Amino acid sequence: MQKNVVVAVDAMGGDNAPDAILAGVVDALAAYPNLEVKLCGLADVVEPFAAEHERCEAVACTQVIEMDEHPAQAFKAKPDSSIVVGCRLVKDGEADAFYSAGSTGACFTAGTMVIRRLKGVSRPALCTNVPCPSKTVVMCDVGANADCKPEYLVQFAQMASMYAELLMNVANPQVRLLNIGEEETKGSTFAQEAHALLKAEVPNFAGNCEGRDILAGTCDVVVTDGFTGNVALKTIEGVGSMLFGEIKRLFMASTKTKMAAAVLKPGFKELKDSVDPDTFGAAPILGLRGPVFIGHGSSSPLAVKNSLGLAVRSVEADLTGKISSALAEQAATSKGEA
Amino acid sequence: MQKNVVVAVDAMGGDNAPDAILAGVVDALAAYPNLEVKLCGLADVVEPFAAEHERCEAVACTQVIEMDEHPAQAFKAKPDSSIVVGCRLVKDGEADAFYSAGSTGACFTAGTMVIRRLKGVSRPALCTNVPCPSKTVVMCDVGANADCKPEYLVQFAQMASMYAELLMNVANPQVRLLNIGEEETKGSTFAQEAHALLKAEVPNFAGNCEGRDILAGTCDVVVTDGFTGNVALKTIEGVGSMLFGEIKRLFMASTKTKMAAAVLKPGFKELKDSVDPDTFGAAPILGLRGPVFIGHGSSSPLAVKNSLGLAVRSVEADLTGKISSALAEQAATSKGEA
Questions:
Q1: Confidence of residue B160 (pLDDT cuts 50, 70, 90)
Q2: What is the Cα–Cα distance from B6 to B93, expressed in whole angstroms?
Q3: Which residues of chain B are within 8 Å of residue A242 when distances are taken between CB atoms?
Q4: Is B336 exposed, middle or buried (CB count within 10 Å of its CB: 0-12, 13-18, 19+)?
């Protein structure tokens, strides 16, 4: 029999919380028979729900961190919030992973302060699947570290490669540095230094890529500082949403176009789904002592369900343990060379 | 009678040079009756062409800077290249503007070294129209300055606002800073410092925008460092090209979809054109003593024609003079305040 995986779930996080979260938990419990949920949130939300669902336990909290609160201040001021309590369950070994669609900053702060970094990790990083129809592309960091040192990107590369391999089934993932030219002499001082370090220390580093390459099918893992990564990711979302909006307008222009659109609709739905962040659901924070998955603020029940599936798989695959071993091995090699 | 505008044109620059450039010059000469072209390039390219076209003079050069050459080295090594010679024509008052679809870096270096900066300009910057169907959006810098200081962005904002107003007919353009959150405390140290300076010194500064806002219809002028701007611009191009590729595949899937696609084709063509860099053609380097326009490496004849139209209008509108006055005024105000 499969071992159960316990995921602490923030019932209060996200624009559609708690309804979308609870609906997603229902679907996830049905889809993943070895999932157990510890549902963190206000008592009147989590207790009645847990009473009605098997493999779901209520963890009542008295506080909620809002999306627009300053992460570090909110973390200090709200020790009994669903985010902090969820992270504490992971730290205390009462949950195997934590999921929230709430404030990325607050989850990152709570994850780093409560669950803490893996030994040797300079900066945990936010990693995500980039919506690409033709293949899996993973990008890291996408917003956790707005200010980076070049050496952080070596660890981002190692951690994101492990994630791509274990969770996204990408065999021998190739790493590329997001830059503004292909040659190694291109880009900012930061990018040039990061290129040199990646070349020296990451065997699966395959050189630079540019913004237009992210979705072109040539990248497995794209590493970048959190500022650039966040801009690129949100730009991708923005272009997609703008173009699908324009296409909808085209489809609705006349009776004739509406009829033509009906024929093409299944294909367009499939394309739209393939670039929809809901398909993958959540982005992991890599480099902590326990897995934390952060959902999009606008997460739908489908996104919540898929996120919890990802959390279960990351525990089953021992993502944390394997990242830890990989970093230790790398550190030993670097020391041996020095 | 309208005064003639003389544009020095690099016949050798771009992936499709010289054919696409020459075809574009033919169209531009027909479209803009007050355009005179000084066509810079190898003698066997420019001389036969000039002999057959009115208002076109050949300026024979013996050297060509290739796309992948190191800009500063190429500039030094090839003083008789079409890019350097074209810039020299502007510097010597023999041309009013310069256009090239060749190496952006080489044009930037030659522009800065030969034509030189306007008084008071810290860093000239590359400014471009972002392909957006619903409105005009101008972004600056998109790649000239990979390393920026926060204070550069104040001038980028002033120069790009003037460009948007004079050339793109945007009345009272609002400036936004590309960042990873809306609040002024968000983002990298660089972005936070730039935000504070823009707020203090640029009256039409309207706050931060995120990657997803660039095309959402809320921005007129987006300012950013050249690294982030280049990544964002190329990401936009990449997403568009990926999605239009997928849509073409959908259209061609079966006889039924082909028939439906035929009905929708005119609308899709219009949409595709509206996000096509060829529509605007070229990006100006702002902050030089004479206008320099840089085309996409893959510029088509249409892009060349539109670029030369933009060059003519920028001279007629006295873009350079008005940027110079605006910066002098700003400098006087800052001094007065200090």
A1: very high
A2: 10
A3: 132-133, 215-216
A4: exposed
Beta bridge partners of B176: B222
Per residue in B81-103, pLDDT tens? 999 999 999 999 999 999 999 99
Is the Cβ–Cβ distance between B37 and B59 less than 8 Å? no
Give the integer Cα–Cα distance in Å for A298 and A21.
10
Element (H, E) at B285: strand B282-286
* Token pair 């800065």: residue: B112
Picking from B104, B101, B111, B106, the residue whose alpha carbon sits closest to that of residue B13 is: B101
CA distance linking residue A217 with residue B241, whole number of Å = 12
Classify strands B292-295 and B282-286 as parallel, antiparallel or unpaired.
antiparallel
**In sequence order, what are the residues at sequence separation of 6 or more whose Cβ sits closer than 8 angstroms to the Cβ of residue A198?**
A153, A154, A157, A175, A177, A205, A223
Test A263 with B267 for CB contact under 8 angstroms. no
Whether residue B256 and residue A271 make contact (CB cut-off 8 A), yes or no, is no
Closest-CA residue in chain B for A67?
B181
Instruction: Please answer yes or no on whether A238 and B228 come within 8 Å at the CB atom.
Output: no
**How high is the pLDDT of residue B320?**
97
Nearest CA in chain A to B69: A183
How many beta carbons lie within 10 A of that of residue A266, not counting itself? Answer: 12
In this structure, are residues B316 and B291 in contact, taking their beta carbons and an 8 Å threshold? no
Exposure b/e, A181-197, CB count within 10 A at least 16 = b: beebebbbebbbebbeb
Q: Phi first, then psi: give them for residue B59, nearest 5 degrees.
A: -120, 95
Tell me which residue of A233, A32, A305 sits closest to B231, measured CA to CA.
Answer: A233
Q: Tell me the two tokens of residue A99.
A: 């999921």
Contact map slice: A 228-287 vs B, CB within 8 A:
228, 230-243, 246-247, 250-251, 253, 256-257, 259-264, 267-268, 271, 275
**Hey, which residues 160-199 in chain B have their CB within 8 Å of chain A?**
178, 180, 183, 185-191
Cβ-contact B251, A263 below 8 angstroms = no
Query: How many C-beta atoms surround the C-beta of residue B316 within 10 A?
Result: 15
Residue B182 region by backbone torsions, left for phi larger than 0, else alpha for psi between -120 and 50, else beta: alpha
The verdict on a CB contact (< 8 Å) between A238 and B268 is no
DSSP-derived secondary structure letter, B181: S
Tell whether A219 lies on the interface with B, counting CB pairs under 8 A.
no
So what's the pLDDT on residue A280? 67
Residue B338 CA to residue B332 CA, distance in Å, equals 10
DSSP single-letter state for residue B73: H
Instruction: Give the residue among A233, A192, A195 at the shortest CA–CA distance from A214.
Output: A233
pLDDT value, residue B337? 55
**3 state DSSP class of B37:** strand
Whole-number Å distance between alpha carbons of B242 and B227 = 22
Please indicate whether, in this complex, the C-beta atoms of B267 and A261 are within 8 angstroms of each other: no
Asked whether the beta carbons of A65 and A42 are under 8 A apart, the reply is no
Cβ–Cβ gap B231/A178 under 8 Å = yes
State the Cα–Cα distance between residues A97 and A293, nearest whole angstrom. Answer: 8
